[in-house]
Design brief:
The complex is a heterodimer. Chain A has helices at 6-12, 29-67, 70-73, 97-128, 131-145, 149-175, 192-215, 220-228, 233-262, 265-270, 289-297, 302-332, and strands at residues 77-78, 93-94. Chain A is mainly α. Chain A has a domain at 97-332: MetI-like fold, CATH 1.10.3720.10. Chain A is flat, with a radius of gyration of 28 Å. Chain A starts with 5 loop residues before the first helix and ends in a 6-residue tail after the last helix. The longest helix of chain B is centred in the first third of the chain and has 35 residues, at 76-110. Chain B has 13 helices and no strands. In chain B, helix 6 (189-205) crosses helix 7 (210-235). The chains are: A mainly alpha, B mainly alpha. The interface between A and B is large, with 102 and 99 residues.
Chain lengths: 338, 354
């Protein structure tokens, strides 16, 4: 079988030889369009984030300018109207310090409760659980992550809140000597602690799934080396998994913190909003930016709406910073981030 | 050359030396029983009371019993290991607690409101305080459907294009876009509502409508769709792309006719997960959709009801009847989310399994 020249073979057939195509690495026209469109689509997230910032800043500018730094350091929210029923921007004061600090307090309580539970749960699912239990639990936890926040809000209000108030009383009884657990007034209802407990149930799924992802990427050779040296499961976890996954878990916890700070409805139902900075977490007086926006929105006049936009901007920036740091940490540790 | 015939050995069942023997299992059970009895005794004898006390004492006792048993039989390392296992199991049980409690509460409180009129009527003639067998959530069902549909129409192309950029084109912006998509998935839902309010409702339309609700939901949906699609496209083997290019296809034809069709079921999963993510979003809809009580099929004008708003309104109304209505609404919403979720699991197959 000798090789035939391509030209000789095509001469035997009656079909005309197709024109030679140019051999090039230059993208064709269709590809250029396609790449342009895909890049534009990809950059839309940048555009949207930029637009959110610009529009909220634009709408809130008037209030931000008149309040200055007082917007984030003051705690008063007084709307003063002049004789014509218009809002008097000079006399009114808009300050969200109590709300911002309250947001951070609630979210921190949630993280403090959720992270140990989530890490233990992730350790169990990665290193202890038999296959079928693992599959069921992972599906359940993913499902819980998809529960709408209004469900957590209602369940928190009707089911969890009475229990959480009881726990608050227990904490107060035994740990009163710790300053943040002191009570100047005995009101246990709708406290930051209760909101933190409800929020913790919301962020357990996300912290668990990120921790699980990080733990499952522990290098197998190190795991097996530890076992081969006679380590028990706990010794292996302590020597291999925890050093490897520590920073990833920190990132996951921060992601949970970001989620908890941005949560609206679930906090609204279980937190009593008070315009005063309150560090005593068991007292029924707290703050939350997102809930405040929802609460004030219904009866707000045009100027107050602008102040709410400025509050939204503050919340947006706060969550953006926390989430970005968290995602950088998680991605660095080998997770996918959220 | 003789054939080595292996001598027939008696069939030995492969052993599982790591599995627990009946004796060990009996001992474990004994420890649990002992701890249970002990916790009852301690709670009865001491000043402690309540469910929390039983659980706490039981947990401490089981750790102590296991510790002593393991220490005596195998030494200190094993004893520590048993404590760690107990804590890990406790972590799972504590995680399971809210899930089961939520599912039970929704089922228990929502089932009484499930009447056929729920799906055939709207709230035109009824307030939230009316008996549960009057009025329904038809307007919420259609409204949510329309708004989620609008959100899907907007976020699907953007999300998939983002995913294609991240996996196929991989240009200069890959890392920044990855970062921004992650940042975007952390945008609080109420901020999305405020954004639509400040960018479109106040300057242009002046009135809330279903379209605005859809736009707000789209902002929340894009990151979910983009991230899930990205994961799916990453799973398509590079061979397929190379084969497409080798056949002389341009990148556009390779991706549109080979890669995306190969990833079809995964992309549908992305859609479903995105829908499940936004179906229950409440805060933005309270701000921008107007939240009507009447069946409204026109997204561009007039307030439009939605599931979360229906539940929200009934819940904040605060009477027994209206709260029963809210639970019934959440029951239906949760069932829908369940269906979406399991559809995504079935289609996604082993994607999440590690």
């Amino acid at each position: 079988m000798s090789t035939t020249a391509p030209g000789a073979k095509s001469a035997n057939l009656s079909t005309p030889t197709p024109a030679k195509r140019e051999i090039t690495t230059k993208p064709r026209f269709s590809d250029k369009v396609f790449r342009g469109v895909a890049t534009a689509g990809g950059l839309s997230s940048l555009l949207l984030l930029g637009l959110i910032f610009v529009f909220l800043a634009f709408q809130g500018f008037q209030v931000l300018r008149s309040e200055g730094l007082g917007f984030i350091t003051g705690s008063n929210w007084d709307v003063v109207q002049d004789n014509f029923g218009n809002t008097d921007l000079e006399a009114s004061s808009f300050g969200i310090a109590a709300m911002l600090i309250g947001t951070v307090i609630c979210a921190t309580i949630a993280v403090i409760i959720a992270v140990p539970i989530s890490v233990l749960c992730a350790l169990y699912l990665t290193f202890y659980a038999p296959g079928f239990i693992k599959r069921i639990m992972v599906a359940l936890i993913d499902l819980m992550a998809a529960f709408p926040s209004i469900l957590f809000g209602m369940w928190g209000y009707f089911v969890l809140m009475p229990h959480a108030e009881y726990w608050a009383k227990l904490i107060h009884k035994y740990f009163e000597w710790i300053p943040i657990f002191k009570m100047d007034v005995n009101i246990f209802e709708r406290s930051p602690f209760v909101a933190g407990v409800v929020l913790s149930t919301m962020i357990i799924p996300i912290v668990t799934s990120i921790s699980r992802e990080i733990f499952s990427q522990t290098p197998l050779d190190r795991v097996q080396a530890a076992y081969a040296l006679g380590a028990t499961r706990w010794a292996m976890i302590k020597a291999v998994v925890i050093p490897y996954g520590r920073s990833g878990v920190v990132g996951g916890a921060m992601l949970g913190l970001g989620r908890a700070m941005g949560e609206t409805v679930a906090v609204y139902t279980v937190l009593n909003l008070v315009y005063q900075i309150n560090w005593q977490v068991l007292i029924g007086a707290g703050g939350n930016v997102a809930s405040m926006i929802l609460l004030k929105f219904g009866e707000a006049g045009p100027t107050e709406i602008k102040a709410l936009m400025a509050a939204g901007l503050a919340l947006f920036i706060l969550t953006l910073i926390v989430n970005s740091i968290a995602n950088v940490i998680v991605t660095k540790t080998g997770g996918k981030g959220r | 050359m003789s054939i080595n015939k292996p001598e027939a050995k008696p069939a030995v069942k492969p052993g599982k030396p790591w599995a627990s023997t009946p004796r060990e299992r009996a001992l474990d059970l004994g420890a649990i029983l002992l701890a249970a009895v002990g916790s009852f005794a301690l709670v009865a004898l001491s000043e402690l009371k309540g469910k929390l006390a039983y659980a706490g004492v039981f947990f401490v006792l089981i750790i102590v019993i296991n510790f002593i048993h393991n220490y005596l039989s195998r030494g200190i390392a094993s004893a520590k290991d048993s404590v760690a296992s107990s804590f890990a199991v406790a972590g799972v049980l504590v995680t399971l607690l809210p899930i089961t409690s939520i599912l039970y509460a929704v089922f228990e409180r929502g089932k009484t409101g499930l009447k056929p009129n729920l799906f055939t009527t709207d709230m035109k003639l009824n307030g939230p305080n009316d008996p549960i067998d009057q009025g329904g959530l038809l307007h919420a069902l259609t409204g949510s459907g329309i708004m989620v549909g609008i959100a899907l129409i907007i976020s699907l192309p953007i999300g998939i294009l983002t995913a294609i950029y991240l996996t196929e084109i991989k240009g200069f912006f890959t890392r920044p876009i990855k970062f921004l998509v992650q940042a975007m998935s952390g945008v609080p839902s109420i901020v999305a509502g405020l954004f639509i309010l400040s960018a479109i409702v106040f300057p242009i339309t002046k009135t809330p409508s279903g379209l605005m609700g859809g736009l707000a939901l789209a902002i929340l949906m894009i990151p979910t769709v983009a991230r899930t699609s990205e994961e799916v496209l990453l799973l398509i083997p590079a061979d397929l792309r190379e084969a497409g290019i080798a056949l002389g296809g341009t990148q556009w034809r390779t991706i549109s006719q080979i890669v995306v069709p190969a990833a079809k079921s995964g992309l549908i999963t992305a859609i479903i997960l995105g829908v499940a993510r936004v179906a229950g979003e409440t805060a933005p809809l309270v701000l921008v959709s107007g939240g009507g009580d009447v069946l409204n099929l026109n997204p561009t004008s007039g307030p439009m009801g939605s599931f979360p708003f229906y539940i929200w309104k009934a819940f904040t109304f605060g009477t027994t009847e209206s709260i029963a209505r809210a639970w019934a609404g959440i029951f239906v919403l949760l069932v829908l989310i369940f269906i979406l979720f399991f559809a995504a699991r079935l289609l996604g197959g082993d994607r999440n399994k590690k």
